[in-house]
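ok so i was messing around last nite and threw this chain in just to see what happens. nothing serious, just curious
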Amino acid sequence: MSGERALSKIQWGKESAAAHGTAVAADTILAGAEIAAINPDRKPSYYDDALGLRMRSTRAVIYQYLAQNTIKLPACYFQALPMVLSCGIKGNVTPAEQTPSQADYLWDHTPSLTATNAPDSITLEAGDDTQAYELEYLMFESLKLAGQIAQGAEESPVSLEAAYFARQVSPVSFTGGLSFPSMETMNAKLSRFYVDTTWAGRGTTEKTGTIRAWELELLTGLHPKFLGSANKYFDVHGENFIEVMLTLTLEGNANADALFDYYRAGTKIALGMKVSGALIGTGVAHSLTANLWGTFEHVTPLSEEAGGNNLHKALFHALYDPTGAHGIEVKAITNVAAI
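result:
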């Protein structure tokens, strides 16, 4: 029997921090992910052996293994964020319940800029009813969250794209008996936008009636390190610079014009985005908050037109703030106590 798309799925389990790459059984289904190709993890090299024949080679050499692809959630949900942020920005996070007995956990993934961020790794299982495939030591090298507010009663989801690397692809059997996850879908219409002139005051001054669309892109700096060993796959990972950019589509109003003035003057500001969801029990609401310190690479008035309204397009680049001793803050609140 051929594998069915309807019976395809993706699920994962968190690996031990002391044993990255030691595969574990999945314990969580990643709902809503696009079913993607299982990309090749090895590439044979062929050589001209000059054997006096009309065929070039007798050799097909595989030197190393590496699995790479992108997980895409067209309609992301808050409960997926802790795993993605733990394997991309900052791991080994202990969530803090905000309201006693309400399971409203704050996950603070604000990265250290001077020390290791101890990223977590997962074992991914993906496949269908015919065959599952396992990818161990999976981490994310880039994350992209984006939301566009529909100008009617249409959909306004927040999408997630998470580009990963992993050791290798191996055929396995799916871990069975997993429960369906809870899902509080992120709504771009509930996006809120903040501008402040100090890092200490970040997330204080909301600019209402302005944001139409946004895209937050994080280059995590995580990468596999191939060092001499008994294995063809990588044994360790490395951390590098973290780069963060925020693209904004804005109503062409006074708030947008003020950002144009900041751009012209090269003024450094704290720019914040927050997406909220439903209340968790009687506690606080699901949310994702990202605060950045930096400057605008550009602010372009009249870049687009929608319904007779002129729009501004802006690109914000995160920088280090010596006064606040930071420049990137990422926090999520959801009803997930562990990954």
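not much to say yet. The mean pLDDT is 97.
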